[in-house]
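Bug report (template v2)

What were you trying to do?
Predict the complex of my protein with 2-OXO-4-methylpentanoic acid.

What happened?
Run completed; filing so the output is reviewed.

Input:
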Amino acid sequence: MAACLQLNAKSYRAFLSTTSAPKHSAKPARMRCSAASPSKRYSITLLPGDGIGPEVISVAKNVLNLAASFEGIEFKFQEMPMGGAALDLTGVPLPEETLSVAKQSDAVLLGAIGGYKWDNNEKHLKPETGLLKLREGLKVFANLRPATVLPQLVDSSTLKKEVAEGVDLLVVRELTGGIYFGKPRGFGTNEDGAEIGFNTEVYASYEIDRIARVAFETARKRRGKLCSVDKANVLEASMFWRKRVIQIASEYPDVELSHMYVDNAAMQLIRNPKQFDTIVTNNIFGDILSDEASMITGSIGMLPSASLGESGPGLFEPIHGSAPDIAGQDKANPLATILSAAMLLKYGLGEENAAKRIEAAVLDTLNRDFRTGDIYSPGTKLVGCKEIGEEVLKSVDAQVPASV
Ligand SMILES: NC(=O)C1=CN([C@@H]2O[C@H](COP(=O)(O)OP(=O)(O)OC[C@H]3O[C@@H](n4cnc5c(N)ncnc54)[C@H](O)[C@@H]3O)[C@@H](O)[C@H]2O)C=CC1
Ligand SMILES: CC(C)CC(=O)C(=O)O
Ligand SMILES: [Mg+2]
């Protein structure tokens, strides 16, 4: 079963049943249960990538496997090279075989790509180009990035407690269009003979309509508020974005639509983040605003994401990068990747019980005060990537079975 965003009104219902933001309900671990015999099998492509990618994927894979086993699910994992690791191995950042295996699987779990070693490569030989090609190849245009301030981590937020407490927002980022993909792009010389670099922000009507529908449907399942973020006071592409979003809004009279310029949105996220429910925006603004939103929750190491298309497998990845500054030191926070694995189960495979088991295990681990350095606060236990992963596994294992 592959992740599927059915964007016509008739067949939207299947997707809608799984579009609400993860609800975290911490339940204390009470009894151990044994795994059911496998009855469902899924193939998962693992793309560890670079830097901390392999560290967080190794931990998340174990958590995914254990949580799923309680629901009678068995995985066939296939690990493939991607990003800088693939460049070193094959000379390209997204080998054809990697894309082909990913396309044929039920879901794809990615760590992160990139690093200093490849920073000065030509564009087509950059790890980041491989990631864009992967998203394009899988046609995963809708990137859901939930930012929820967990009560356990309010003190880790860089904002005052009263500002951060209770924040629960979702950025719906358009992922396969806009300036990251627009043409023309490149380097050249202008009429004055000066060297230039240029990119193009361009959106077709169908690209805006489909992401707007995902956002309206998602907002409808949440608190019914959608804020479209653009730069329509300056950019033609944004003026067009706003016009199309307003047109699609007529299909959703029950959703309260507002518009905000991106500079103001960046400021409002820090001033009063609780005003936001669902945000829909283009590729580059969504990239930037979701990193900003992550710090409200305590750390970029906490934010998962799901990227979905109209058909085919979904792509699930933490929103952070390869963090070369801490790579190989067992310092990475794997919770964003673990929560991405929960999104994989929920949005990618429709396996809600296993997803809930992971979410509850993360909360239980935080309740037991285990913290990596990025979310550490005095009085909690500082541990590394592997150790917090072991603690999450214990919490998965110790839960009352959800459906077995
Ligand atoms: N999806 C992807 O694979 C992405 C890849 N990148 C690539 O990653 C490389 C590094 O980019 P940066 O701009 O430094 O962004 P980054 O997200 O990798 O790191 C930013 C800061 O956050 C910290 N951080 C990130 N993830 C963390 C985690 N799980 N636990 C604890 N701390 C964490 C890092 O140590 C660093 O100080 C670049 O090559 C960039 O292109 C960047 C963003 C997304
Ligand atoms: C590395 C980029 C291609 C993407 C990025 O920063 C992101 O998707 O968050
Ligand atoms: Mg980013």
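What did the reviewer find?
Confidence is low (pLDDT under 50) at residues 1-35. Residues 53-69 form the longest helix (17 residues).
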